[in-house]
Amino acid sequence: MSKLKNSNAYRLYEFIQPFLTYNIPLETELPENKVLVLAPHQCDEAIGCAGALLNHSKKGGVIEIAYCTNDTPERMKEAEKAASLIGAKKNHFLQFPIKGLKENKEFCESLIRLFDRVQPEVVFLPFWFDNHHDHVALSKALIKIRKKIDLDFVVYAYCVWSPLIPNCLFDISSVWKEKQKVIECYKSQMKTKDLVRVAEGLDQYWGEVKTSGMQYAEPFFMATAKKYFALGRKIF
User: What is the CATH number of the domain that holds 67?
Assistant: First the structure.
């Protein structure tokens, strides 16, 4: 890891430390009804937050998913099936190339139009340092557009390729089998990585950490948009 990345990691912990507690609270429901999920790639939403989304849709919550990049027609069909199982009311395919989000003005403009159209109350997105170029690029784009548009919602940052330090957990034991089916929609991605195993290991770990015998829990870093993006400006 470079000195710069080390520096960012130390600064991250310094700024998020006030949000953290030893006894991580267990959430049972989202604070608002209208949810927008930002998935840099088709499958991120399945791994990172499908359990919380399934719980929300079962309670009548409204969910829309925005897929920022596009890979193949096959993967788009997989995403449509996964979103249907989650209970999403609408999908947005922004159609940018993979690894094409960094410093992309058109992508920033697409995000502005998306937020203006959806007006979400809760937004799920990858955590700052999730280990993929597009995940980091999405966060940086959101920092930029907050100067042009009022981002007034609650953030739930999820992890896909890198663990995060959570300040809340969702017990997803009752919907784990359904989350597994959502992940398994992505057959094209399962050819090279066992995504079910990735998600199961992470969710089992946090379930047991929270309460001995709890089967599965999804971890999130939760904050208001104002606080979350103020933190991002200090990190980047």
Answer: 3.40.50.10320
